[in-house]
User: What shape does this take?
Amino acid sequence: MRSFILGIVLTILVLLIGGLGLALLGFLPTRANSAPPEMERHIAMSALDNSVERHAPRVDNPVPTTDENLIEGLKLYTMNCALCHGGIDRQPSSLEKSFYPPPPNLILRPPDDAEWHVFYVIRNGVRYSGMPAWDRTLSEPDIWKLTAFLTRMAKLPPAVQEYWKQSIAANPPAGAEEGHDHK
Assistant: This one.
């Protein structure tokens, strides 16, 4: 029995060292202009979600969810996020296919995560994805306004929807029918 367990441990070690060797010797693709394998995408998204679950504090949004703050969140999105995550005109980003992994289109597929989760990702960024940490660019209240806008996009109050329509002559999303982008 002891040699059987030793064999399993050695097999796992050989596989891990072999995988690391393949990566370090350049056998794994690193191109940003090709679709990621489904297994890689699943592992990366699971790792991201689990890391945020482990490290993000479960805090409530201290900024009141007023029409003015949601409109401010929409403006912040337009100025800082739309280039990568798609414009409020519901058009895809011109950079969407240039990133690896591609950034989610947050207008077509709003996040369905809790506010604390979205806030943590915006504030701290996502390593190796092109998503910067915004904590040195935006104030904490502005990050919360942006978070409020993103997490309520499918059910915005009428005044905010009207502002959206007047801003771009296009309707805001009616609901989150297309679902969460990375699960």
Notes: The CA atoms of residues 1 and 70 lie 63 Å apart.
